[in-house]
Amino acid sequence: xxxxxxxxxxxxxxxxxxxxxxxxxxxxxxxxxxxxxxxxxxxxxxxxxxxxxxxxxxxxxxxxxxxxxxxxxxxxxxxxxxxxxxxxxxxxxxxxxxxxxxxxxxxxxxxxxxxxxxxxxxxxxxxxxxxxxxxxxxxxxxxxxxxxxxxxxxxxxxxxxxxxxxxxxxxxxxxxxxxxxxxxxxxxxxxxxxxxxxxxxxxxxxxxxxxxxxxxxxxxxxxxxxxxxxxxxxxxxxxxxxxxxxxxxxxxxxxxxxxxxxxxxxxxxxx
Length: 271
Ligand SMILES: Cc1cc2nc3c(=O)[nH]c(=O)nc-3n(C[C@H](O)[C@H](O)[C@H](O)COP(=O)(O)O)c2cc1C
Fold this sequence. Notes:
Elements: E1 4-6, H1 16-20, H2 48-52, E2 58-60, H3 80-89, H4 103-114, E3 126-130, H5 133-150, H6 158-169, E4 181-188, H7 194-211, E5 215-218, H8 220-228, H9 231-235, E6 242-251
Antiparallel strand pairs: 1-2, 3-4, 4-6, 5-6
The structure holds flavin mononucleotide.
Flavin mononucleotide binds near residues 94, 217, 219 and 221.
């Protein structure tokens, strides 16, 4: 049994669905002309079969009518130059305008994350979005306090944590840089590749944000304290059994980058 049912009157036996299906192994279908798709237990609900079928011959339980849409603009994708321009001009933003990010805009950013790949299509990543200024400040302050408490003798970062604490005391925010929004990615910690899935999804969010004129900053300090102290996850209402795998400060950038700079040359081994 497969969750996908092929309508024999529409199927042209091109077999592309079976070729692209991640769950098909072994012999082809014994039913001549009808491709063999993954059995129920191997089906990832990835939708490749329904998305690739040229004649719309496949009905899939996970994708009811109305959820399979034609690709826009005849499948045109941004050119390599356009993509590279986005990739080169995205920078970590550390100075934000005093302007809230509207909920519908944050949802557009997260819509980018929703379409990220995930191991075995688990789509394991969930999000907490903080826009409350008071709570953002609390997250930054608690992060700074935990960092200060963690820098024992010999910790090479103890000095930096001291500077961060000093800045916080002066009302500045070296943790979230005063961003008006924070997106926290979390997942059930035993999900397959939970951390990688979250990173990949958040990077999609970063690029979606850039395309909307927003700036992002990976909130590394918040991420690092979440790994070793329960207090910030508790403040963020992260559910039991879930772990924080990424955090992104988000807002409208105050400054525009008019140039892009070089990166280290590629280090590639060709075999
Ligand atoms: C996982 C991760 C954590 C980071 N954490 C911080 C951070 O806590 N504070 C910060 O100012 N920048 C942080 N950054 C930004 C890096 O410093 C930045 O990506 C790098 O300097 C390159 O600059 P660019 O992002 O503008 O290209 C982080 C980046 C990553 C990928």
